[in-house]
Amino acid sequence: MEIIMSVLAGILFMTGVYNLLQKQLLRIVIGTALVSHGAHLTILTMGRLKDGAPPILTEGVENYTDPLPQALILTSIVISFGVTSLLLVLAYRAAQINHTDNMEQLRGNDYE
Amino acid sequence: MSNLAVLPIALPFLAGIIVAFFHKKLIAARIFSIVASVIHLGVTILIFLQVNAGGSIVLELGNWEAPYGIVLVADPLSALLALTTAIIGLAAVIYAPKSLSELQEEFYFYSFFFLLISGVSGAFLTGDLFNLFVFFEVLLMASYGLIILGNGKAQLRESLKYILINLFSSMLFVTTISFLYSVVGTVNMAQAAERVGEVEQQGILTTIAILFFFVFATKAAVFPLYYWLPNSYTVPNAVVSALFGALLTKVGIYSILRTFTLIFNHELTLTNTLFIYLAIFTMIFGVIGALSTNNVKLIIAYNIIPAVGFMLMGIGIFTETAIAGSIYYLVHDMIIKAVLFMLIGAIIYVAGTSDLNKMGGLIHHYPVLGWMFFLATLVLAGIPPFSGFIGKLLLLQGGLAQEEILVVLAALISSLGILFSMMRIFIKGFWGEPDIMELPSQKPSLSLMTWPIGLLLTISIILGVGAEWFYPNIEAIAEYVMNPDLYIESVLKE
């Protein structure tokens, strides 16, 4: 199970990076979302995937699911959700003001 | 246990939220921000004194014992850096009203500013790797807000790249933390250090270490990952650039220093050789960048890069002297970069342009500004007896003792380059006949701008001239940093 999840995370990273390297702004934003999904799946996988094991609610539980990665992934999801929404707004505004959504034309050397 | 360690994070955080409620009442917001910054400074001074007198302050949040809960650790190094952050914050808040337009100030500048300070202090004080990621995000989120303040064409264009590179490296950071978690089963720095030590940092752990380095090097702008820095630090307002240049890259360097002295300190031949070579390239390429342009702000932005190289060099040499040099240089560079960006802001404010070719003769109109810039140049380039010299001396001493001739040479050459790039601004901008440039007949008053600059510059000069007083403290910190057992003991209490 861990291997399948790792491969899936790898595919997400791969497609994410491919999209990040595109010229169109919207594709780049989608790329960042895919990369963060890949990262989140990696966190979940790294805490070992166990089927049917409960979290620790009472003392003396022998077989339990590690709660820490779930706490980490939750924090990370919230953060990447926030950044992605900010990025969408910013990309829209930047495209509007610069009259292009093509990264090639957004290079620029003027600072005013 | 004392709650003192959380105050440098909680105070600015609360201040940032409170000031958002009256963001349109500028006078009240300004006074409130200055008062809050002074209190913040007072608290960090208290922490600094207490840590130096009685050892690290460790706070276990929510009373969860050390390896299980989140810990905040105010040890000598982080207390010193939190103090420096507070000083820069106070200067920036005094400088801000003159530098920003009223509209920019109204649109939550002070909120973002306080959240940035809170995130930076948090990154310095936390003793937990995942928490470090969270504080990185807090300070980055605030910096995203600050960098687009003003809504200019170039600003939007460059901030997009800034956000993208930081977002990508943050995601890599989380992935790396999860790798480390799967190997050592903890995200607490002290416990991770202990466990990595137990298995003597085998192959996979070194790979994880390099991944961590990649993430922090992106934030710190080490060669070849510095390409995002110059443009995105040039486009925002001067006070924002000052905050970024003084604080953000230094958080990256601090993280490298912390992780590689505390956790990954067993495979030194590999990582330190890498650091030293990257330091050489960082210094050389940064200086070439600084010499390549006529935009004054871009020159200063490029000058951040060789400074990062100097600090990385100290970490790469990895002796007590060199680490002391790195720490001294870290504090010196935080202050002097803030001074330089603020000075450049004042210069652009009075000259109305950032193009060096269109400037000239400013010293006839603004002698104080001119001399302050000259002094700042000497401090930055490391002319004795100023603070840059002390840091560089320690670094070079450490380098020569370890016979790393190549990096010592690169450091000396890049110092000359830095001096030359700064002198170009002085010669072209300040020298010359008084009537070279057309200045507005009504000279804008600079007093509000010169006060905070003067304050920081004085601190910087005292740091250099009074090195006798500060050096024992820095030496003690370096000794502490080189003894990771002290940190582990103070957190895990074994």
Protein described:
The complex is a heterodimer of chains A (112) and B (494). Chain A is mainly α. Chain A has one domain (2-49, 68-102): Helix Hairpins (Orthogonal Bundle), CATH 1.10.287. Chain A has three helices and no strands. Chain A has helices spanning 2-20, 25-46, 67-98. In chain A, α1 (2-20) packs antiparallel against α2 and α2 runs antiparallel to α3 (67-98). The longest helix of chain A has 32 residues, at 67-98. The mean pLDDT of chain A is 87. With 494 residues, chain B is mostly helical. Chain B has one domain. Chain B has 21 helices and two strands. Chain B has helices spanning 7-21, 26-54, 76-99, 102-106, 109-125, 129-147, 153-184, 189-198, 203-220, 229-234, 238-262, 268-291, 296-317, 320-351, 362-365, 367-381, 387-401, 405-430, 447-465, 467-481, 484-492, and strands at 57-60, 71-74. Chain B has a two-stranded antiparallel ribbon with strand order 1-2. The longest helix of chain B is centred in the middle third of the chain and has 32 residues, at 153-184. Chain B is globular and about 70 Å long. The two termini of chain B are 16 Å apart. The model of chain B has no long low-confidence stretch (mean pLDDT 91). Classes of the chains: A mainly alpha (112), B mainly alpha (494). At the A-B interface, α2 and α3 of A face α6 and α7 of B. Chain A: It is found in: Cell membrane. Chain A: Keywords: Cell membrane, Membrane, Transmembrane, Transmembrane helix. Chain A: It comes from Salimicrobium flavidum. Chain A: Belongs to the CPA3 antiporters (TC 2.A.63) subunit C family. Chain A: Pfam families: Oxidored_q2.
